[in-house]
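Notebook, student rotation project (T.W.).
Task set for the rotation: take a protein with a known small-molecule partner, predict the structure of the complex, and write up what can be learned from the model alone. Partner molecule chosen: magnesium ion. Sequence and SMILES entered below by T.W., checked by me.
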Amino acid sequence: MKTLPFDSANIPAPALLEHLSVAVLWLDEHLQVTYLNPAAEALLGTSQRQAYGEPVCNLLAGETMLPEQMQHSLDIGHPCTLREILLHVAGSDVVIDCAMSPLHDPELGAGLLVEMMDIDRHLHIAREEHLLAQQQATRSLLRGLAHEIKNPLGGLRGAAQLLDSELNNPEQREYTEVILREADRLRSLVDRMIGSPVRPKMGMVNIHESLEHVRRLVMLDTQGRALRLLTNYDPSIPELYAAPDLLIQAVLNIVRNAAQVMDEQDDAQIILRTRVMRQFTIGTSRHRLVARIDIEDNGPGIPPALQDTLFLPMVSGRKGGIGLGLSISQSLIAQHHGLIEFVSQPGKTVFTVLLPMGTAHGDST
Ligand SMILES: Nc1ncnc2c1ncn2[C@@H]1O[C@H](COP(=O)(O)OP(=O)(O)OP(=O)(O)O)[C@@H](O)[C@H]1O
Ligand SMILES: [Mg+2]
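Predicted structure of the complex:
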C-alpha cells in the first residue's frame, strides 16, 4: 500500500488546504504527485492514495500543454499562470485557470505548487449575462428602428393608395401595386421582428402539452422524411405560469431549425428533453425552480462563425433563411424572464430553454 506523504514525513495534514474550493497539488521535482487536496481529487477524478507518486501527466492523460508548462516553470524557477485551459478529465470537459509556483519547502524539498480553478460556472454566467444584454440591446434597437420605419411607411402606403385610386391606366397601377406590396412586406417583417403588440394570454401551462403540440406541427412539416422526433420528459415538472402560444412559437422555431439543417440526413434525430432545476441561476437572478427544455439534434452543428451572434436578427446560415427565428424565440422566452442558450459541435447541438417557474405575479425567486 502507498504511504501518504504528509503522514510519512510527519507533517500535520495541511488542514486549510483540505477545505479550499481551489484544487491544489504539490508536485516533486520530477513532477510526481506528492499531495492533492479534496478539490483536486474531485476535479481530476482520482484520490490522494491513487495519485501519490504518479507522474502528473498520468493524471492529465491526453494533456500535453499543461505538463510541459509545469516542467518549464520548474526549470526556470518562475511562477506561471495559464488561463481558460480546456481539460478533459474524468470523462468530462472542464475549463480551468491554472497557476503554478516553483517552491522550495524545507520539509518537502523542491517542487511545484499547482492551483487549478474550475471556471466553467464563471464562464457560463458571463455567457448568460452576455446573452441577456445582447437580447435587451437588440430589443431596444429594434423598437426604435421599427418606430422609424413604420411611421413613414404608413404615409408612403396611404399616398400610394391615393395615387392608385387616381390612376386609370392599368400599366401605371402596376407600379403603385408594387409600392403597396413592398410596403406591406416591410411592415410584416418589422412586426415579426418586434413581436405582436397584443398582450399574450397567460395561464398555467403544462409544458409537455406545449411540447407535444410542437412535435405534432413538426411531424406534419417533415412528413415522408426519416426524421425521428423523440421525447424524454420529466413528469414531475409542475405547471408554469406562461403564455402557451409564445412558448410553442419559441420552441417551434428551434425545432424547425434543427429539422431544416438535417434535411438531407438519413439518421436525423431530435430529442425533446425536460428537466426541473432547483436553486438555479439565470444570468444574475437565482430561482427556486426552473424548467429546462433541451432540444438536441445530431445534425452538422452551428457554423462557428455564427455562434457569437446567433440570437441577433438577420443572422442566418440557411439558404433562404431570414435569420429571425432564434431572435424571436429569445425575445419570447425573455418575456417569461427566461433564457435560451446552446452548445454545439458537429453531431450534437443542444438548445436549452430555461424558464423560471414563478407565481402569477412573476415572482420566482
Ligand atoms: N440546430 C441547428 N444546427 C445547426 N445550425 C443551426 C441550428 N439552429 C440554427 N442554426 C443556424 O442558425 C441560423 C439562424 O437561425 P434562425 O432561426 O435565427 O434563422 P433562419 O432559420 O436562418 O431564418 P428564419 O428562422 O427567420 O426563417 C440558421 O440559419 C442556421 O444556420
Ligand atoms: Mg429559423
